[in-house]
Amino acid sequence: MNVKSIACLLLMLTVACDTQQVSHSDATKTQQPSTTAITTLEEPQAIAVTQLESPRQSGASVTQLEVVQSTQATQTAVQKALTDLKAQETSTGIRINLPENVLFDFDKSNIRPSAKPTLQKLSLLLKNYAKAPVTVNGYTDSKGSDAYNQVISQKRAEAVKNYLAQNFNINNSRMTAKGWGEKQPIAPNTKSNGADNPEGRQKNRRVEVIISRKS
Asked: Which end of the chain is more exposed for a tag (fewer CB within 10 A), N or C?
């Protein structure tokens, strides 16, 4: 092979190398935009998922529903308590008469354990009318001296007041206890012929609770 032939071969090899470098450079330039394109497409997808997941946090709506249901249940219980206690609407407020035999043993002023369900219903009403002042009045029948009846009626009124405060967390400061003795009977202590009236006297031995309309 002469010198001319060798020179031509070298020239051809050089051109071939340059062509490969150019092809590789073009391929690299072609591939680079694809990375940018993927990144550009992927980012909105992440944003879209975030926007779709956010509305799932609907705890507020569930809480509001639970509050409504709880309120309805409470009002139902309040209405049942009013019925069970035979509460009366008066010009001064809601009046509830609690018979002596439900609350106390004969001639005693300590609350009987069996009286708790009745007083629990009463406490529900007091909590429902949470801002209303409450008056607890104690009464007796006409048996015994006026002085004795006054003392025991006061003790019984205070016993109910303290029981509500200690067992059902009713604010003591909103309740007032007062004993009236044999005053203000709701039934005759004697019959028209002067004979004893046990049924009437039993009705008069009571504790009266008034939930005032004032709030």
From this structure: N
